[in-house]
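stage 2 :: seqdesign
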């Protein structure tokens, strides 16, 4: 639209705006008529009353009209009524032949009113208004906008339009033998039947809702033009959208939309959701993201001085804020893509894909074996060991991957034994993802060196490039019809490219001259050192995602699909603690070696910072949950995805604190005792889900996630007190919690007026509350003083 604005800026046609306010008496009368109907004109002598497109200004629906692109099927339909002589002017013409007024195809269009200066004396037409030299005739035979007709009236023919000239289309449903979705078995000798009106409950440009009751298998026909991209969802009357099931939309009677219904009382929702529109939106958004990324890289190369001295505080900032920003960009790209593929896959296939990702994720954790964290910790202490650790970790990952695959095959066998086997597509997706993870695991060995050398922005930038590639390849896979299995295959291509870029970048940036020797004694030592790290990571992942396979087994793929849309927001937000803790880890590891008081201050600052960020995010997400899920997955994932998000978002304040505490315990050398904490947490999670999932489905899973985080924090704290006492949790957290509670109350009250009002009030109240409560104290000001450039710190009166 921007190019059109620039091209036509300053060009304005001259017209009296009073014309927009004037409503002829004819228009006023038509607007008062109830129901959903269409009009046309009868002009055998070429006059043009209420000229085509003129009625649209007043909300009147017309069978005529100008349009630069008129669907061929509609042109052929109107040609069946009478020849179209105005197509050179991009126009469907008015009725000009007397015999056309009696055409049943005109009735089928729902042309209830015919406007003419002529006198029409035909049995089915009655004059209902006259004035201003015009007459309005009501067509008594006009068909309702929506109606039902028994399925026994189905006529499967080669040419529906030709057949409609031979048999009354008001008593049959004509379907093409050659095109459209497959039909259930129908009797070749169709029987005429009477149609019954159906109630149009809501009518909009992209959505129409119809209520219908049928006593036998029947068609519901909506006399609006069929077009690819229209979908239909059926649910029993009186139920919510969660009971909807998608059904095929057929092109019936040459031009219209039809769906098949079983006996019962149904609500049918027609929704226009074309793949081309989704793809166009994704393409435009990705173009903007690529430009933004290119600008960010240019700005970083211009502004960042690699030779400047890095203090501990600046190191944490550079290696957490920059990667976090880049990975938030990556998650934004993932969200754009998810908003595309979730609408293509639907809840059930999206649930299968999430199941595949979860199961393959277990393989990735075991095959990586905690080596990434080990490399960061050990190389951060002695950088000259980088080459030795790099080579041996890559070799070690390959061997471990063989062993890591065995539990996955055992899982396949166990779910088959329980009577609810994974679909062949899900199994294929898991195996393809596992192959891709072999390459991503090797890539993590290179990424770990960047973190150890405190250059975390590099792998984050590389990941942004490959995320863009993933979207491009993924779109191709979906357009080719490969579904979520194609998305899994794309992961192999993307991970190979990522590995290649990371390897080249590593050797260009770091002096890795060796020794390049295979050291089996080092590998054995690494297994012993990294085993607790792997086990902690595995248990932490099982801790979060064990509810997914349990939910699939108990509640089905759709429930997993709803839950997944909520978790996508959680995973996106969790970029913040993930990269913060990776940047914090090497710094606090050194501080623990040198000065425990410095380490305690850093830990307290980190905990408080996580709470100050996580709590308002949770409050705002609760307010916007319905909107967020609608943006990501669309109406098919509502309201369940929103309910799940409103619950599970409150796990992040505790989870972020646990994330920091977990890495501090590793830095303290207590990774082995952490295993006990995760075992207790996972056991609680599994038992609670087994009890409550059958009763409350995803609601139980979301609530249990919060409770499991609380259990884990209590246990973590017991171990932390042994090496780092006097953390004083209550002193750290009560102010942010109290301010967030006030923020939540104000947002809720404001949302009673409008959602935007509630959001604005929350954004204003939170920083004001922090200032009034003294939550931002002297310690935080010192941290900011070290982080910010001196002129900015002076302006903010931090120095």
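stage 2 :: out
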């Amino acid at each position: 639209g921007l190019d059109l604005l620039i091209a036509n800026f300053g060009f304005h046609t001259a017209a009296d705006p009073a014309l927009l306010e004037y409503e002829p008496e004819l228009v006023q009368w038509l607007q008062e008529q109830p129901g959903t109907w269409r009009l046309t004109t009868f002009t055998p002598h070429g006059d043009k009353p209420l000229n085509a497109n003129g009625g649209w200004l007043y909300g009147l629906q017309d069978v005529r009209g100008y349009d630069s692109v008129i669907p061929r099927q509609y042109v052929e339909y109107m040609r069946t009524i009478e020849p179209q002589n105005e197509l050179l002017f991009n126009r469907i013409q008015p009725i000009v032949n007397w015999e056309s007024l009696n055409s049943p195809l005109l009735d089928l269009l729902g042309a209830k009113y015919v406007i003419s200066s002529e006198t029409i004396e035909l049995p089915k037409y009655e004059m209902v208004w006259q004035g201003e030299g015009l007459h309005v005739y009501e067509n008594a035979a006009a068909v309702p906008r929506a109606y039902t007709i028994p399925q026994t009236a189905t006529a499967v023919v080669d040419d529906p339009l030709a057949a409609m000239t031979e048999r009354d289309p008001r008593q049959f449903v004509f379907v093409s033998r050659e095109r459209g979705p497959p039909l259930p078995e129908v009797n070749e000798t169709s029987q005429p039947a009477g149609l019954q009106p159906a109630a149009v409950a809501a009518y909009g440009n992209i959505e129409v809702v119809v209520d219908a009751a049928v006593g036998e298998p029947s068609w519901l026909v909506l006399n609006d033009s069929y077009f690819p991209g229209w979908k239909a969802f059926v649910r029993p009357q009186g139920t919510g959208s969660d009971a909807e099931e998608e059904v095929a939309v057929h092109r019936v009677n040459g031009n219209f939309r039809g769906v098949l219904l079983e006996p019962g009382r149904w609500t049918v929702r027609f929704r226009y959701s074309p793949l081309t529109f989704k793809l166009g939106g994704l393409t435009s958004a990705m173009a903007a993201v690529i430009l933004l990324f290119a600008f960010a890289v240019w700005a970083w190369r211009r502004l960042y001085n690699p030779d400047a001295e890095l203090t501990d505080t600046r190191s944490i900032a550079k290696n957490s804020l920059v990667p976090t920003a880049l990975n938030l960009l990556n998650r934004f790209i993932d969200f754009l893509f998810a908003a595309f593929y979730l609408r293509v896959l639907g809840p059930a296939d999206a649930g299968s894909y999430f199941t595949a990702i979860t199961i393959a994720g277990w393989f990735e954790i075991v095959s990586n074996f905690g080596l990434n964290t080990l490399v960061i910790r050990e190389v951060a202490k002695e950088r000259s060991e980088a080459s030795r650790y790099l080579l041996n970790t890559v070799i070690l990952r390959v061997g471990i991957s063989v062993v890591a695959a065995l539990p996955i095959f055992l899982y396949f066998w166990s779910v088959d034994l329980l009577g609810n086997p994974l679909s062949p597509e899900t199994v294929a997706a898991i195996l393809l993802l596992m192959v891709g993870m072999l390459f991503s695991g090797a890539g993590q060995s290179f990424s770990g060196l960047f973190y150890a050398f405190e250059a975390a922005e590099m792998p984050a930038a590389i990941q942004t490039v490959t995320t863009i590639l993933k979207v491009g390849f993924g779109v191709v896979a979906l357009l080719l019809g490969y579904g979520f299995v194609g998305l899994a295959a794309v992961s192999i291509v993307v991970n190979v490219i990522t590995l290649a870029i990371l390897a080249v970048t590593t050797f260009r940036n770091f002096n890795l001259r060796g020794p390049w020797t295979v050291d089996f004694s080092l590998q054995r030592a690494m297994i012993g050192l990294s085993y607790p790290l792997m086990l902690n990571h595995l248990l932490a992942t099982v801790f979060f995602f064990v509810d997914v396979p349990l939910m699939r087994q108990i509640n089905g793929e759709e429930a997993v699909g709803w839950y997944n849309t909520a978790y996508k927001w959680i995973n996106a937000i969790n970029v913040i603690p993930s990269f913060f803790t990776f940047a914090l880890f090497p710094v606090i590891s050194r501080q623990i070696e040198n000065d425990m008081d410095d380490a305690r201050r850093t830990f307290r600052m980190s905990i408080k910072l996580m709470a100050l960020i996580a709590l308002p995010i949770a409050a705002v997400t609760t307010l916007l949950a319905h909107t967020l899920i609608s943006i990501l997955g669309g109406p098919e994932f509502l309201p369940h995805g929103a309910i799940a998000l409103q619950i599970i978002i409150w796990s992040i304040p505790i989870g972020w604190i646990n994330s920091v505490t977990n890495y501090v315990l590793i830095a303290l050398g207590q990774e082995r005792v952490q295993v006990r904490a995760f075992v207790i947490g996972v056991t609680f999670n599994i038992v609670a889900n087994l009890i409550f999932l059958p009763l409350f489905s995803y609601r139980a899973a979301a609530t249990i996630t919060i409770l499991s985080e609380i259990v884990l924090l209590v246990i973590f704290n017991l171990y932390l007190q042994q090496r780092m006492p006097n953390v004083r949790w209550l002193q750290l957290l009560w102010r942010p919690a109290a301010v967030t509670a006030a923020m939540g109350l104000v947002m809720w009250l404001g949302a009673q007026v409008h959602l935007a009002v509630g959001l604005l009030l929350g954004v204003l109240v939170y920083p004001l509350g922090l200032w009034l409560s003294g939550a931002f104290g002297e310690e935080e000001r010192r941290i900011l003083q070290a982080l910010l450039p001196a002129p900015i710190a002076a302006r903010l009166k931090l120095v």
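stage 3 :: structure notes
- The chain has 25 helices and 18 strands.
- Residues 312-368 form the longest helix (57 residues).
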